[in-house]
Specification:
The complex is a heterodimer of chains A (about 180) and B (about 300). Chain A is built from ten helices and no strands. With about 180 residues, chain A is mostly helical. The radius of gyration of chain B is 27 Å and the shape is elongated. Classes of the chains: A mainly alpha (about 180), B alpha+beta (about 300).
């Protein structure tokens, strides 16, 4: 029996996981709704981690293409949000490997800063953290992931996530208290 | 029960977890109410969060990736790419997922090695219907019922395009690609319950007007690039800009019966959702109604080419 497209209202009332189940059945309305829900999140994720905004946009788009391609295979083993960030994380990891190959001398882990950006100070402080600590604190502060979600994403014990998050925050407290010129 | 340090305070990580809404809250909250030392720690954690929040990101402007601009004559083959996605999903109903470790990794995992014989048995057993698209000498006719404002249609287009282009390079003209309108808007499609996509009817008309003027690809690129904000007005404005259509209302009324005819055909075929693909009249869809994947779509193309002696 053909699947009727869900209405905007009906889609808005469904959970992410229910929408993915509908996607598996080819429901375009469900895909629309998931795209609407997570477009800004995916864009923000890459925008803060990739130096070129154009490339960040491409990667965010690739996440949704990957979701579409894999929709039929999707199994709700974890929350859809974790699944989505897992795709984003894998794409980012691949991008960084390519970047290292292209430019063996790294130019910094975060998006390029503009002098006028309000977040410049924050970015400078974050760039001084260890890679693993920085990713954890960014996933918590910007993506608002729960400890268990971060642990699943990074394949770390949840206690490790918690201890590294605490360490990162305390280091950020110290760095953000420094005068700006001393940071740089 | 909370962890405590030698000083009798909760472990600092417990305080942080309480602020984050993680872990048991009651004991930490009671302790914090009367402990200035831990209140200061909590203040530090909150202050870091507040400072990080100053790094804001501008609103997203992107849509589902758009097609590359291609020469007009290639357009009919481009859309065929969308079929591949549908094929992929259909295949999965027959064959269990054999890859992937975590859900995140499975999404970007290597393609499944298909069992061609099993696929072909399934495909050959499916009914063939007349979808109203003459072959005109092509060995394979791919028909898609779509909605230009549907992100899934756009994603399918992107996914299938490389395969369609591959076969066009190998066998020019062997595959004919035909789009048919199935707008998810009851102003032009009586088969859907509401107006899920407000600009879908005008978009369908605009593509037809563009085809009359040799600008199909340019119009579709624009529609796909602006899916999120398509309205009747924005499509009308683009028709004026790109096609020089000054009286869109009249032109819309002229081609609307054709749009409705496609939609009615879709209803008769029990299309139900977009995109829905047919390959030589065989519905490229899972038995339960899901999309085909990329690999299955290509297998279907290969089967039909072989069947036609190509």
């Amino acid at each position: 029996m053909p699947v009727k497209p869900v209405s905007d209202t009906a889609a808005a009332l469904q959970t992410d996981e229910e929408l993915m189940e509908a996607c598996k059945s080819g429901d375009a309305g469900a895909f629309d709704e998931l795209f609407r829900r997570y477009r800004q999140s995916m864009w923000s994720y890459f925008r803060r981690r990739v130096r070129e905004s154009g490339r960040a946009e491409e990667l965010a788009q690739e996440v949704f293409v990957a979701v579409f391609k894999a929709a039929r295979r999707y199994e709700p083993r974890a929350a859809f949000r974790t699944y989505l960030y897992g795709i984003a994380f894998n794409l980012l990891s691949a991008e960084r490997r390519r970047e290292v190959h292209r430019n063996p001398i790294p130019s910094g882990p975060l998006a390029a800063a503009s002098i006028t950006d309000e977040g410049l100070w924050v970015r400078q402080a974050l760039s001084r953290l260890a890679d693993s600590d920085r990713e954890i604190v960014m996933l918590r502060e910007f993506e608002q992931l729960r400890y268990a979600e971060i642990a699943a994403l990074l394949e770390l014990p949840i206690n490790t996530v918690r201890s590294r998050l605490f360490r990162a925050r305390m280091e950020l407290r110290r760095l953000l208290a420094l005068p700006m010129e001393r940071q740089s | 029960m909370i962890e405590t340090s030698a000083s009798g305070h909760p472990h600092p990580e417990e305080v942080m977890a309480w602020i984050d809404g993680e872990g048991a809250a009651g004991d930490v909250a009671r302790h914090l109410a009367s402990c200035t030392h831990c209140q200061a720690l909590a203040g530090d954690v909150r202050d870091v969060s507040a400072q990080l929040a100053t790094w804001t990101v501008e609103p997203a402007a992107f849509q589902i990736p758009s097609r590359r601009a291609l020469p007009e004559h290639q357009w009919r083959y481009i859309g065929m790419a969308a079929l591949l996605v549908i094929g992929f999903l259909a295949w999965s109903s027959v064959h269990e997922w054999r890859g992937g470790t975590t859900p995140a990794r499975s999404a970007v995992a290597q393609p499944i090695q298909e069992d061609r014989a099993a696929f072909e048995r399934d495909w050959a057993a499916r009914p063939r219907v007349d979808v109203g698209a003459p072959a005109d000498g092509a060995a394979v006719v791919v028909v898609v019922f779509l909605d230009w404002q549907c992100p899934a249609c756009k994603a399918a287009d992107l996914a299938y395009k490389p395969i369609l282009e591959k076969y066009e390079r190998r066998m020019p003209g062997a595959i004919k690609y035909v789009t048919k309108d199935y707008p998810l808007n009851n102003r032009c499609n009586a088969d859907v319950p509401g107006q899920m996509h407000p600009g879908a009817c005008e978009a369908a008309a605009a593509v037809r007007l563009a085809t009359e003027r040799g600008k199909t690809g340019a119009m579709i690129d624009w529609l796909f690039a602006h899916q999120e904000e398509l309205t009747p007005e924005s499509v009308q404005a683009q028709a004026r800009t790109l096609l020089g259509v000054s009286d869109f209302a009249a032109e819309y009324a002229r081609v609307l019966p054709d749009v409705k005819r496609d939609a009615a055909q879709g209803e008769a075929l029990r299309v139900g959702f977009t995109p829905t693909y047919y390959i030589n009249g065989v519905k490229a869809q899972l038995p339960g109604g899901g999309w085909f994947g990329v690999e299955q779509f290509e297998l279907a193309i290969q089967y039909e080419l072989k069947r036609a002696g190509r």
